[in-house]
Amino acid sequence: MDTLLANLTLGFSTALSFQNLGLCFVGCLVGTLVGVLPGVGPIATIAMLLPLTFNIDPTGALIMLAGIYYGAQYGGSTTAILLNVPGEATSVVSTIDGHQMARQGRAGIALGLAAIGSFIAGSIATLLIAALASPLTKLALLFGPAEYFSLMVLGLTFAMVLARGSVLKAASMIIVGVLLSTIGTDLETGEDRLTFGISALSDGIDFTVLAMGLFGFAEILRNLENPEARAILTTAIGRLLPSSEDMRKALPSILRGTGLGALLGILPGNGAVLGPFASYSLEKKIAKDPSRFGKGAPEGLAGPESANNAGAQTAFIPLLTLGIPPNAVMALMVGAMTIHGIIPGPQVMTRNPELFWGMIASMWIGNLMLLIINLPLVGMWVRLLQVPYRLMFPAILLFCCIGIYSVNNSPFDVVLTALFGLVGYALHKFGYEPAPLLLGFVLGRLLEEKMRQALVISRGSFATFVERPVSAGLLVVAAVVLVVAVLPAIRKGREKAFQE
Amino acid sequence: MRSLFVVAALLGVGTATAQTYPTRPITMIVPFTAGGPTDVIARIVGEHMSKTLGQQIIIENVIGAGGTVGSTRGAQAAPDGYVLTMGQMGTHGAAPAMYPKLKYDPTTDFAPVGMAAGTPILIVARKQFPPATLKDFIAFVKANTAKVNEAHAGAGSVSFTSCTLLNSQLGLKFTQVAYRGTGPALNDLVAGHVDFMCDQIVNLVEQVKSGNIKAYAIATPERSPALPNVPTTKEAGLPEYQVTAWNALFAPKGTPPAIVGKVNAALDKALDDANVRKRLLDLGAVIPAKNERTPAWLGTFVKAEVARWTPILKAAGAKGE
Questions:
Q1: Topology of B120-236 in CATH?
Q2: Is the ipTM of this complex over 0.85?
Q3: Does B105 touch chain A (CB under 8 A)?
Q4: CB-based contact A456:B177 (threshold 8 Å)
Q5: CB of A208 closer than 8 Å to CB of A89
Q6: Positions of chain B with pLDDT lower than 70, given as ranges
Q7: Domain B2-118+245-315's class?
Q8: Is the pTM of this model over 0.95?
Q9: What is the helix (H) or strand (E) element at residue A378, kind and residue range?
């Protein structure tokens, strides 16, 4: 305990230096801005800003880059809530109830809840990293391919719970998502799959392309169709910030979301994506009246937002303690450290304590800064909704296109997004929801990869998934979730059929 | 249309422009993600080269299909010295065997500029893996071939290619577990889910130092200052296994020799700079000797690399298995 205090003191004295505070602020601000801009994600931004950090000392550079990363998580929710455009896999869930709240004139409350929830989650997660980073690393190592596959199966069952309407429609959307994720080069043989000879598809479809198309572009098409939806948005802005009553109600969801998100964030292979989906499923399941979900339930926003931010923080654990990046942004952080002559590994903690603890302390400071930056901005963002369509839509489209292009510097991606925009519009017309499709897409690639790895290691024996205790446990939970989620829907469906 | 551009560009780039080159920022295509070994090396030398050339060098990460998407763009760029490509062992050595539909020929579609730096390959294993030395390892894997799991970072990656060479020299075929990149593969190696892998020293050095994994040998003629306790393959009994994941700078074919010369001189100067050298050596990278830095040397080297990798990869049936 004493060492923890001493370490934190070292961390805060590093992070609170004038230069590092400034860098943390710049990082958070830039992160918030790129998060708000649809499509421009933290990966592209960090890659672009990497050369700027050459002349700063490594601790300061990493503090700034980390600020961009979690700043973007904050900013991403803003666009998801206001415009129904998720910039990242983790903010897909925020569109469900968050955007509904905005439509009902509660945009300010939604943004406030997201910001405060994220702050609480970020603070708890930072403490968790400081106190338990080393023991928690073992969790990451416990998850071999078999365990990971079972976790993905569990993740896919969340998508069933996520769905508002027909279970069958949700299931088919998940399958389409998984199928889309198989496009690209086969990992084992290097053979192209389902690319139709288009070389731009050889690395698969980018998540941003799919999400911007199905949500962003499709949303604009839908809005062009019925201008009256607009009226709801402009009539009442309502309270700007959540009341203490709102906060009191949301707090349990925030804490549950934080726990789930923090746990999943540690896992390798981007387990953090699952956090918001898991939290949403949990909140919906334990709610007294689950029918409110999808119609602007605050718990359906506060929980996942907290899970998102907690996961974003704990994703640093494998990087800081093992030197192994769990996702693409962290891989970029490894690059940033390497460029600065610090090769990440298990010894960073002892060899560069001021870097390790300085970064942890800066995470908390950064979260506080984000709250301070974001709360005053809420009013501005909400007013943004009053911008006339004829100005807002071309602007959103333009920023989306720039953002999508910046991901891979590929014009083909922009065309593909437009195509998915049309698909998204059609799906909406036929009553299919895009969220399960996106979840299927995000998890599909890992599902296949991990299943093949596990089967290669077990020499083709499927028993490996049930013989390993953690894997078996996850599969049992998945089965339970599935039964709980699907049974009432089937029963209801039957009742309906009988009534007719 | 493209040839028209090339002609126009060729006409535009006379001797006069070669003298004033560069007058605007230069793009350096890195065909891999930011933060990877090739990217880090490109950024370290590129930063210094900017100072010599008096123009900013902008790193553009054009990723995809094992680096061949970015290299294709680099091959097709105007030959005026404003678009350079940081190619490596995969894109300019193994790619012709890995990608039958490759849109460029590494030996003829580029004007070689110069070798930048290479990262040696290590043979590593999970820490509980029974064999203690490379000799033990060879004996063990020969006796237990069916049981051993080899990890690699995906078909076409440096890790995959260098493992394939090892397997072909040992005359063995292991069960290969494919991962998407070194990160996840290393995670499972540290956790003990897979037995061994081959990859670039920069990705492994800290894990070896901390004892999370063990290193059997380094595939270079000399030991690395980054890991002085790890024997070379020659010392450890497998002298024919020599692999360094090299990175080298290329211009599109037809670039005027005067421009290639200027860029080469800037690269050479960067590799002599004490600070650049230190940063590269810290990564465990090897810096080419003076005589290995000329465009002509690189041209010969690339031809030798393509000739070396093609039969090995084709024999391993890496494609369309």
A1: D-Maltodextrin-Binding Protein; domain 2 (3.40.190)
A2: no
A3: no
A4: yes
A5: no
A6: 1-16, 318-321
A7: alpha beta
A8: no
A9: helix A353-384
